[in-house]
Structure formats: structure tokens, C-alpha cells
Write a structure and sequence with these properties.
The complex is a heterodimer of chains A (about 300) and B (about 400). By secondary structure, chain A is an alpha/beta fold. In chain A, about 30% of the residues lie in helices and about 25% in strands. Chain A has a seven-stranded mixed beta sheet, with helices on both faces. A seven-stranded mixed beta sheet of chain A has the order 9-8-11-10-12-13-14, sandwiched between helices. Helix content of chain B is about 40%, strand content about 25%. In chain B, the strands form five sheets. In chain B, strands 7, 8, 9, 10, 11 and 12 form a six-stranded antiparallel beta sheet that branches. A four-stranded antiparallel beta sheet of chain B has the order 1-6-2-3, covered by helices on one side. In chain B, helix 12 links the parallel strand 17 and strand 18 (about 380). In chain B, helix 2 packs antiparallel against helix 3, helix 5 (about 160-170) crosses helix 6 and helix 11 (about 335-350) runs parallel beside helix 12. The longest helix of chain B is centred in the middle third of the chain and has 21 residues, at about 180-200. The chains are: A alpha/beta (about 300), B alpha+beta (about 400). At the A-B interface, helix 4 and helix 5 of A face helix 4, helix 9 and helix 13 of B.
């Protein structure tokens, strides 16, 4: 099984006609994701074509609004490729239209926009993943994001990460070891975002088809420390981890908007200590993420 | 994005937040004239000469001088500060060269408070912090006496409510010992509300007034201004480009930003080129693990072309300390054959002489590896991250 997305998920792509949106919509369709609609204002009524996993042509109807798309096609999951200036608004539109899951890939959304989005989503049944994330994939069933599908393998290990390519590195290692993945979620690299480690760990903990979890964190903020608390109190499945940025200097933003050690907090060392104290086995190097998880089984 | 104190105070003034009268100066003579002007205007012979650098702790580091001896004394102080290296607990041991001074009127200070606004990541809200421990390092207060810091979270759909500002004002007893307690309370609360409004409209990620002072007349004045802007919001602030001080930025980091790359200079000798921030940090970590020392963090992003790879190599090599380069690419959207072409082109164009280890994985990896093999260039391939890190560390050690 999986968490959040599976072969039954009906996906609408916001920003489908843009460069990133069209490229990745095609990749997801080829993977077998059910993309049932696309949204670009003023392009409603047209069709987006792409080859499906069997080579057959898939015709995706486009709509002017997410509400139109949801009403017409029953889409329940949105993936957003809208540029930063309009992305926060796109998230709110998807939630307003009734999507139960919104995956925002966009990088560069102003923090204050995300603060307002997060406030608006409080109490809403809509779950947000991201922004500034690679998305979510349940291998063999549904890919909602930009990750390379071919490195994944269906299986029973959950992966949750703040990173993009570092997640692929981990997945590559797991697949090589024959350790398939139930669901892989990139929660993103921004300081204020949707689902955090705790919420994803809770879902993996309750998923009967996830046996163990790999958590990939990085410097900045206290998400890993909160995850450690949650793991200690609630998670009985084995958890392995890796924290990037042991070598990062304080005060410098290391790529991700959220990857910054400020005021002395958010160091990799603190995070590793907190996770280890909670019983998580933390890989000594990024080359050992897969083998570290395997050692727990 | 950081800005100077004098720029922060200009913005404070626009929002009606009281600041001392001050004049920014680029020369000792200008500082002297500024002092003359201020003394004449205010009738107070005391002025403060403040070094302008993008780092805190200037006072403790000796970069802020209260001058009682008039304009000629200011000239001497300014001469000693300008061009000097100011080292504070936030600059690192190499310090920063002082190129600009801010000459400010002296004030009769009764009390120093701390006020700061930050984005609280776990709650996803802007939090206003206030403390009676002004003028000292707030991080120390947070560590040793967290109860001395009062906090109010701002409603994400609204603004700081007047009652919240009053809670902080009365919580800190700002009116105590003031000759005009009601005025002091009102000014303090008003300052907090204006600051909150500024934070939102100007897209700050952090804003500190340390110290926010109460004068002997009970007036509330911002004695310092530390504003950091959210880089992601630059799309809606065209005026920010005018506030940039290129002397405060690492030239290569600035150039990288313009080229759409993420680059942070470090002090080692192994250059790194990676796609993705998390993987780039992890690459630095694994190099260190094997005994090497990374020269930089560089995230080439998802759309690297031959041009951007060449630019990236140039940036890495601009540090003369670099004795080797490790390219670690996990191609998702990025195809390994495209990056291989970029590496080959860059290597040829720059006539690269230092050892180069390239690890490719992911989309079109076989085509990428084949291209590198056939290129005839001195490029050492690696299959895994660990393999690559060990190889580059060894190659650089041998070259030494």
C-alpha cells in the first residue's frame, strides 16, 4: 500500500502548460500516474496530450480554474508548477476547490506568503506537501513530482526527506540493496511548509505496508528534533536517518531557504544527537544511508 | 539579504519608528562635519561613531565609539575606524573592513530593551520577542534565562493586535521609572505595531532592535536596526538592488546568485560541483569524512548546461586554494549525458590542470560515462559518492 498517493489518486496539474509543468506532466503520465486534468487560466477547453506507460496517447483536458477541473474530473490531488509569484495563491485555490492533497514543487516562494497559506489551511482537510520539494511517489503506482521514476522500486520501506537529489541518492542505494519503497516523500527545503517530519512519520507508523523508515534531514530549524520526540514516544518501527550539513558554517544559507544555522541552533550535530537519543540509527556518511537502514532489520 | 544599520534606520523612519538623528559618512572629514551638524542641531556635545558592517557585536568588538570631545575628536576616531578590520563574534576571525561610518546624536539613556521579530518555523508564524535584557547578546539570554524573553505570535491572517503590544509593554514594565509612564507605554506599543507592519510589508525574515532604549525623558527610540530580508521576496522589491553593498558580499557568491547558482565559499582545497542543495551539503560532509577539506558549497541546480558548468568551474577555480574538483551528479531531470558534455566543454575551455573526479548517477548515466571515457581528458570516474570522495581526497593529497 502506501501513504497519501496510490494508483487511485486522480491528479490535476496546475501550471501544466509552462515549461516545468508540461515536461513533468509528461514524465508522470509516462510513469502511469492518473493525470486527469490540467489548469492554466485562459487555456480551459484545450487538451494536453502525452504518451502513457503503454505508449497509448493520453488526452488531458485543461481548465481555467481548479474548481472546474475538480467538478468535471473528480481530481483529488493537485501538483503545482506555478512560478513563485503565483504559487501561494495556487495552493489556496487547490485547497478551496476541495483537493485533499496539494503538492507544491515551486521553489522561491516568499516566506510570508507561506505563513499566510499555512494559516489559511489550518483546520482544512487539505494536506500540503512542500513547497520547494521534489514531490511524492508510491513506486509502481503513482508519481506526483519530479523525481526520476526509474530509480524507485516498489517495496516496504518509507522514505521522508527535506532534500531532492539527496533523496534520490538514498533511494538509489535502497533499490540497489533490493529494499523497495512503500512511499517516498520530499517535504521540501523551505522554512515554513506543509507536512513536516512528525506528520509523515505518523502516517508511516500507521501504514500496515511500511515496515521501516529512512529519514533524511539537514541543518536549520528544529524539525528533526521534533521528529526525534515523536519517534521516541510513538514509533515502534525501525528508523534510520542521515543529516546533511555537518560541515556547514553558521549563518550561511546552504542552498535551501531553510538550510541555515542561526542563533546557534539548527546544527547537524544537535539533530544527530536528538535522533540517536530517540533510538534512530544515523548513517555516518551519505554513502551509507541504505546499509544503515538494512542493519536495523 | 542583509543591510546596514543606517539603511535600516532609514526604513524605520519611513514607518514612523523613532531613531536618533544620524548621518552616514564615507570619510573621516565627512564624519567630522556630521558631528558638527549634529551637535549644532541637538545642542548635545556627545555623538556616537558607529562602524557600518553586516554583522552584529560591533560595540563589543570596538567598532562603536561614544565621543565626548567634539568634532576634532570625532575626526581622530573616524580615522582610526575607517579602513580598519573589525572583528566581532559574528564576523569570524578574519573580520570585516570598515568602509562606512554612521555618526549619530548622543542620547540620555535610562533603559535598554531588546525587541526582535523572527519567523518561527515550527508554528509558521511571525513571533515578536521582547526582553528587558537589551544591549547584550540575546542568544545568551535565550540560553540562560529564557523566561526573560516575552513572546507574542502574530496572527497569520492579521497583524499584531494592540492588546498584544500592550502585553509586552506592561510585561516589561516599560513605564516604571519613566517621567511620563503613559507616554512610554504608548510609544513602546506603537513601535511594536509599526515594526510588525514593516516586517510584513518589507518581506523581512528577521528584524532586531537591540537596544530599543527609553530615554531619561521617557521617549522610546531605536538605537540600532538590524534588518534581514527574505531573498525569495526579491521578485516584489525592485528597490532592494539599490541597498546591496557589494563590499559586504563575497564577490563569487554574488556572481553565483546572478547566474542562478547557489555558492558558498569555504576554506578548503577540494572544489565541489553538485546538483541539489542537500546532496551538495552531503558531498561536503563525505569529503570531510575521508580527510579532505571542501573549498565550497555549490548547487548547480536542475538545469545545468555546458555554459553553467563552465561558469561553475570558473567560480570554483577563482579560489587559488583549489587543488582538485569533485563533481557529484545524481541526474533526475538533469541528464548525465548533458552534464558530461558540459564537463568536457568546461574542462577543455579552461585547460583544467587540477585532478577532476566525476561521479554520475541517474538518468542516462551510461551515455554520460561513455562520453567522459571517450573525451580523452584526464577525468577520473567514480561509481558511488563514497568512491568519488575517497578518490578526490587521495588525488589532492598526492598533488600536494
Amino acid at each position: 500500500m502506501s501513504i497519501l498517493v496510490d494508483k487511485n489518486s486522480r491528479v490535476v496539474v496546475q501550471g501544466i502548460t509552462g515549461a516545468a509543468g508540461s515536461f513533468h506532466a509528461k514524465q508522470c503520465i509516462a510513469y502511469g500516474t492518473q493525470i486527469v486534468a490540467g489548469v492554466t487560466p485562459n487555456r480551459g477547453g484545450t487538451v494536453f496530450d502525452a504518451p502513457g506507460p503503454d505508449g497509448n496517447s493520453i488526452h488531458v483536458p485543461l481548465f481555467d480554474t481548479v474548481l472546474d477541473a475538480v467538478r468535471t474530473t473528480g481530481a483529488d490531488t493537485s501538483v503545482i508548477f506555478v512560478p513563485a509569484a503565483g504559487a501561494a495563491d495556487a495552493i489556496l485555490e487547490a485547497a478551496d476547490a476541495g483537493c485533499s492533497l496539494v503538492v507544491c514543487i515551486t521553489e522561491g516562494i516568499p516566506v510570508l506568503d507561506m505563513i499566510r497559506v499555512k494559516g489559511a489551511l489550518q483546520g482544512s482537510p487539505t494536506r500540503l506537501i512542500g513547497p520547494n520539494c521534489p514531490g511524492i511517489i508510491t513506486p509502481g503506482q503513482c508519481k506526483v513530482g519530479i523525481m526520476p521514476g526509474h530509480i524507485h522500486l516498489p517495496g516496504r520501506y518509507g522514505v521522508v526527506s527535506r532534500s531532492g537529489t539527496l533523496t534520490y541518492e538514498a533511494v538509489g542505494q535502497l533499490t540497489e540493496l533490493g529494499m523497495g519503497q512503500s512511499t517516498c516523500i520530499g517535504i521540501g527545503g523551505d522554512p515554513v511548509s506543509g507536512l513536516d517530519f512528525v506528520q509523515v512519520l505518523d502516517l508511516f507508523n500507521r501504514d500496515p505496508d511500511t515496515d521501516a523508515i529512512l529519514l533524511i534531514g539537514e541543518i536549520g530549524g528544529t524539525a528533526e528534533e521534533r521528529a526525534a520526540d515523536f519517534i521516541r514516544q510513538n514509533v515502534r518501527k525501525p528508523v534510520a536517518g542521515f543529516i546533511a550539513g555537518t560541515m556547514a558554517p553558521p549563518g550561511k544559507r546552504m542552498g535551501h531557504a531553510g538550510a541555515i544555522i542561526s542563533g546557534g541552533t539548527g546544527t547537524a550535530k544537535e539533530k544527530i544527537a536528538a535522533l540517536e537519543a530517540a533510538g534512530v540509527k544515523v548513517a555516518a556518511t551519505p554513502a551509507d544511508m541504505g546499509t544503515t537502514l538494512r542493519s536495523l532489520l | 539579504m542583509k543591510i546596514h544599520e543606517y539603511q535600516g534606520k532609514q526604513i524605520f523612519s519611513r514607518y514612523g519608528i523613532a531613531v536618533p538623528r544620524g548621518i552616514a559618512c564615507l570619510s573621516a572629514e565627512a564624519a567630522q562635519s556630521a558631528a558638527e551638524q549634529l551637535i549644532k542641531e541637538t545642542g548635545n556635545p556627545i555623538v556616537v561613531v558607529k562602524s557600518q558592517i553586516h554583522a552584529g557585536g560591533r560595540g563589543k568588538g570596538g567598532g562603536v565609539k561614544v565621543v565626548k570631545g567634539g568634532p576634532s575628536a570625532v575626526l581622530a576616531v573616524a580615522k582610526s575606524l575607517l579602513g580598519s578590520k573589525l572583528v566581532t563574534h559574528q564576523t569570524g576571525p578574519e573580520g570585516r573592513t570598515v568602509r562606512r561610518l554612521y555618526v549619530e546624536q548622543g542620547l540620555a539613556i535610562a533603559r535598554e530593551l531588546y525587541v526582535g521579530l523572527v519567523v518561527d518555523r515550527s508554528s509558521g508564524r511571525i513571533v515578536v520577542m521582547a526582553s528587558s535584557e537589551g544591549g547584550v547578546e540575546i542568544e545568551e539570554v535565550a540560553k540562560h534565562s529564557p523566561e526573560k524573553i516575552l513572546r507574542e505570535a502574530i496572527d497569520p491572517a492579521g497583524s499584531l493586535r494592540p492588546y498584544q503590544a500592550r502585553k509586552l509593554a506592561f510585561g516589561l514594565h516599560v513605564g516604571d521609572k519613566s517621567p511620563a509612564p503613559k507616554l512610554t507605554v504608548q510609544q513602546f506599543a506603537d513601535t511594536l505595531q509599526r515594526l510588525s507592519s514593516l516586517f510584513e510589508k518589507e518581506d523581512c525574515s528577521m528584524c532586531e532592535i537591540n537596544p530599543l532604549v527609553i530615554t531619561d525623558q521617557g521617549q522610546v527610540v531605536a538605537l540600532d536596526a538590524k534588518l534581514v530580508f527574505d531573498d525569495n521576496a526579491s521578485i516584489r522589491h525592485a528597490d532592494w538592488s539599490e541597498l546591496v553593498d557589494p563590499n559586504e558580499e563575497d564577490a563569487v557568491e554574488l556572481e553565483a546568485k546572478r547566474a542562478g547558482l547557489s555558492y558558498v565559499a569555504l576554506d578548503g582545497n577540494i572544489g565541489c560541483l553538485v546538483n541539489g542543495a542537500g546532496l551538495a551539503m552531503a558531498t561536503m560532509d563525505i569529503i570531510k569524512h575521508y580527510g579532505g577539506n571542501p573549498a565550497n558549497f555549490l548547487d548547480v541546480g536542475g538545469g545545468a548546461s555546458a555554459e553553467s558548468v563552465t561558469k561553475a568551474f570558473n567560480m570554483i577555480l577563482s579560489s587559488r586554494q583549489v587543488k582538485g574538483i569533485f563533481v557529484n551528479i545524481f541526474g533526475g531531470i538533469m541528464r548525465c549525458d548533458v552534464i558530461a558534455e558540459g564537463i568536457i566543454q568546461a574542462t577543455r575551455q579552461l585547460s583544467l590542470t587540477v585532478p577532476l573526479v566525476v561521479r554520475l548517477a541517474g538518468t542516462n548515466v551510461e551515455q554520460g560515462r561513455e562520453l567522459l571515457r571517450k573525451s580523452g581528458l584526464q577525468i577520473e570516474p567514480a561509481d558511488t559518492m563514497g568512491d568519488g570522495a575517497r578518490k578526490i581526497v587521495k588525488a589532492v593529497q598526492h598533488a600536494a
